[in-house]
Input
Amino acid sequence: MSSTVVLRTYKVPRALGGCSGNKKCHVIRSRRPLASSTFFHSATTFLSKPSLITVTEEPDTLFQKVSLLVKGHDKSVLDSYELFATMAAKELGITISKVCDLPKDTERFTLLKSVHIFKNHRVQYEMRTHYRFVELSHLTGSTAQVYLEYVQRNLPEGVAMEVTKIAMEKVPDHILKPMWEEDPIDKKISQ
Amino acid sequence: MATHAGRSLLCLGRIRASGLGLQGPLSRVTYATHVSTRSSSGKTGLPTRGGGKLGRRPKRAPGDPRTEKMPVDQDWTAVYPAAAPFRPGSVPLPVRMGYPVKRGVPPEKKGNLELIKIPNFLHLTPAAIRKHCEALKAFCTEWPSALDTDAKCDEHFPVKTESTDYVSAGPSVRNPAARVVRLKVKLSCLNLDDHAFKKMLKLVGERYCRDTDTLTITADRCPLRQQNHDHATYLLTVLYHESWKTEPWEAQKSVADMEEYSWEDSPSQRNLVDTLVRAEGEEVREQLLGRREVHEYKDSVTRLKNEGESERTVMLYKEAVKKVLDL
Output
């Protein structure tokens, strides 16, 4: 981030008119602040402060499966995103059980070409939605939170994501035995 | 260059407004510094848009793009540390994009809108991903090594809670479909006896799948996911305890309410016994049920009724009938 580069090749956006010359202006999109830069640049300062990582006694949730369904209009953007997501999962040590390409959905509609009359002249539009499915297995709650936040903050514009998480739990304590054995009075009342 | 012009225009606009006496002291305070820096660079306050003199200072010629000076082994993560639009002067690749005109090639990267429109992943190169993951590894935890297969997971943690998160751009971050929680549990993992199991099946109805022995409870009546999760657990608890209860009216269970077909005291048994007694005489009635052929016939009829009609079951029934009637 050199402060000597004053020349900028894009126009000053209207919202950032008051920005001073030497600071780099980020175009903010859909309320997702760019944490990747702060992470990378302040990585050294953060890691030197051990207080950022807290270890609690609360048991971690266990996710048997976490599946990502990514939807977009451009297949090449989804290809690049899949590369990024799979590489990030490998680097963090997460097992990837499935990566596949679902068939696209096309929504077509026919409209009248002219504003008034000319019913025989129409124009047709279509919207194509491409999908990409990534399934990860055997993740802990902390790992899932870290990975999903990383992957969702770097979601490109025009791409949507659905994350389905299957968490594993033990059978709750109150379902281990029927309560009627300890309280036969309740059973008699019900009868 | 754009910012210089922009800043100067902004100052000029404000100066004119303050001349009309519209603002309070605050705006004058903020622009006093601006005005002082601008005046030191030599430009006066008169607007220089469009015609007239085009400014006393000639425009500085744009220098070489940064790509000429980039070393081959540079740190690319410093050039694109975060998501940013495509800058042809910062990307040292001879990229061409766009539909070519007749007898032409796709347009070059300089001033190419198509390259700016499409989302780029220049900030997510493998080197950048490795750096990010190195920093993120400290926040991850290890999966317990004892639960390496799905079978072991199902054995120790039979209750599965499924929920969905939605991420998309729009006026709102929230998606009402994210509150739905599906709780799946195998009934073989619960402590149920025969009567409790049958009562549970009758209570849940369609929510049980026979092939996978899974009960699925979908909770979506509460506005928050945590509430729906608690509601689903509550439903499971209630179903479990109610299925262990025996109500007095359950004694009136008739043949039509039975889940499975049982051959004892059925018209089929009566018919067979009557037929064989008529064939062989009254005295064999008590011994009939001990005979092997009668047992086979009973098994084949039970299989036909419970499993449905298929080639195998019908063939077995045929064999059993032939044996019983000595055909």
